[in-house]
UniProtKB/TrEMBL annotation:
<feature type="region of interest" description="Disordered">
    <location>
        <begin position="76"/>
        <end position="116"/>
    </location>
</feature>
<dbReference type="InterPro" id="IPR003889">
    <property type="entry name" value="FYrich_C"/>
</dbReference>
<feature type="region of interest" description="Disordered">
    <location>
        <begin position="1"/>
        <end position="23"/>
    </location>
</feature>
<feature type="compositionally biased region" description="Basic residues">
    <location>
        <begin position="143"/>
        <end position="152"/>
    </location>
</feature>
<dbReference type="InterPro" id="IPR056515">
    <property type="entry name" value="INO80E_N"/>
</dbReference>
<dbReference type="GO" id="GO:0005634">
    <property type="term" value="C:nucleus"/>
</dbReference>
<dbReference type="InterPro" id="IPR003888">
    <property type="entry name" value="FYrich_N"/>
</dbReference>
<feature type="region of interest" description="Disordered">
    <location>
        <begin position="129"/>
        <end position="152"/>
    </location>
</feature>
<feature type="compositionally biased region" description="Polar residues">
    <location>
        <begin position="1"/>
        <end position="17"/>
    </location>
</feature>
<keyword id="KW-0539">Nucleus</keyword>
<dbReference type="GO" id="GO:0051726">
    <property type="term" value="P:regulation of cell cycle"/>
</dbReference>
<dbReference type="Pfam" id="PF05965">
    <property type="entry name" value="FYRC"/>
</dbReference>
<dbReference type="Pfam" id="PF05964">
    <property type="entry name" value="FYRN"/>
</dbReference>
<protein>
    <recommendedName>
        <fullName>INO80 complex subunit E N-terminal domain-containing protein</fullName>
    </recommendedName>
</protein>
<dbReference type="InterPro" id="IPR040092">
    <property type="entry name" value="TBRG1"/>
</dbReference>
<feature type="domain" description="INO80 complex subunit E N-terminal">
    <location>
        <begin position="23"/>
        <end position="70"/>
    </location>
</feature>
<dbReference type="Pfam" id="PF24237">
    <property type="entry name" value="INO80E"/>
</dbReference>
């Protein structure tokens, strides 16, 4: 009897364990199925997020393109409106002359003593070509405000931009390389003029003839530094970094550079803004787009146009970049420098 009871208890405990094991096994399978579904769902969401990011980049690029097109179309519309106003003023001129002639004819009819109205003979109408050209300016009403003359657009090169539409540095433009545009100073007048802006922190490099040997290229670092009431300009050569060329204008630094290289270059007109790179249309366009330029008192905004096809016949390189005072190759085509024979010192034993 005791043996049968023990076997019954043993079988009951085994069946309870198997039931509990099957219960947890079902839960495990259910959890694995849920985890697998979450993994697939997460992968699908990641793919969707990546696709949305790509779409955002495309939309931002399209927005920048449309903004440039809008600015270009608005400029063309302004010029067309100016031409229409001038043509309307010229058309109103013959009508005024006709009205004046009709008035004169009506007033010229005088009654005779016999009661008969004598009408004078009609005079032949004068053609518009017989009008004195000197009197045309007096008949046309002069505008009250003088409109600015239409400026030509400068061609700029397309440069790589980041996702936010900001330029990627360094910007290489031939022998010129720009590393920083700096910050526009709007509260001090000497930091700009009508044509140029001198942002503090601007930094660029340019390849040109060495200070010690004009037959060798040297790398010059150009900087614009905050000098208090007016900016300070520096040109530092990599061959002689301890002696920077300092001035209160880019032309002053450029004159010092040319006279230090060779006395033959004293007659070259200074082009400091071109040497620094702030006069290059591409860099000038970027500086003009910087915050704070609208607060400048004397600066006149320039009009720029991005080159649509870089392989076109129109050369995007400005003519100033081919000047002998800036370009190393043009310098040696224009001037002939004597050869410098360096004396090599023998090592001391």
């Amino acid at each position: 009897m005791s043996h049968s009871y023990e076997s019954y208890v043993h079988n009951y405990s085994q069946s309870a364990e198997t039931q509990e094991h099957n219960k947890y096994k079902k839960k495990y399978k259910k959890l694995t199925r849920i985890v697998k579904d979450l993994v697939f769902e997460n992968a699908a969401l990641c793919d969707q997020v990546a696709q949305m990011q790509d779409n955002l980049v495309i939309v931002k690029e399209e927005r920048l393109f449309l903004l440039r097109k809008l600015c270009q179309i608005q400029g063309d519309q302004d010029s067309s409106n100016n031409s229409k106003n001038l043509s309307n003023n010229s058309k109103n001129l013959p009508n005024n002359s006709k009205n004046s002639s009709n008035v004169n004819q009506s007033n010229s009819s005088v009654p005779n003593t016999d009661g008969v109205v004598v009408v004078p003979k009609k005079r032949a109408k004068k053609r518009c070509s017989s009008i004195d050209p000197s009197s045309i300016g007096e008949m046309i009403p002069k505008p009250k405000t003088k409109r600015p003359a239409k400026t030509t657009r400068k061609l700029v090169q397309a440069i790589p931009l980041d996702i936010n539409g900001r330029p990627l540095f360094p910007i290489t433009l031939g022998d010129l390389t720009v590393y920083s545009l700096g910050e526009v100073v709007s509260d001090r007048v000497p930091y700009h003029n009508e044509d140029l802006i001198f942002p503090v922190g601007f930094c660029s490099t340019r390849l040109y003839a060495s200070l010690k040997n004009p037959h060798i290229k040297s790398l010059y670092t150009c900087k614009i530094i905050d000098g208090g009431p007016r900016p300070r300009f520096e040109i530092v050569s990599d061959s002689d970094p301890d002696q920077p060329l300092v001035g209160f204008s880019p032309d002053e630094c450029h004159v010092k550079l040319l006279t230090t290289i060779s006395p033959l270059l004293c007659n070259i007109p200074p082009k400091g803004a071109q040497f620094f790179g702030i006069f290059h249309p591409t860099i000038q366009n970027l500086i003009q787009s910087s915050p704070g330029t609208r607060k400048l008192v004397h600066y006149k905004s320039q009009r720029f146009e991005v080159m649509k096809n870089q392989m076109s016949d129109r050369n995007p390189i400005p003519d100033d970049e081919l000047d002998p005072g800036i370009n190393f190759i043009a310098l040696h085509k224009t001037f002939t420098f004597p050869l410098l024979h360096e004396i090599k010192e023998e090592p001391i034993e």
